[in-house]
Amino acid sequence: MEKQEIRTFGRRHGKKLSARKERLIEKVLPAISPVYTEKNDILEIGFGAGEHMRELAHDFPDQIIIGAEPFVNGVAALLSAICDEQDNILPEYKKLRIWPDDVRLLFDKTRFNFSQIWILHPDPWPKARHEKRRLLNADFLNLLGQNLSSNGKIIIGTDHWEYYDWILDQVKNTNLKTCDSQHETIQTRYQQKNMAHTSEPKYIILGLQ
Ligand SMILES: C[S@@+](CC[C@H](N)C(=O)[O-])C[C@H]1O[C@@H](n2cnc3c(N)ncnc32)[C@H](O)[C@@H]1O
Question: Which atom of ligand 1 lies closest to the CA of 157?
Answer without folding.
Answer: 8
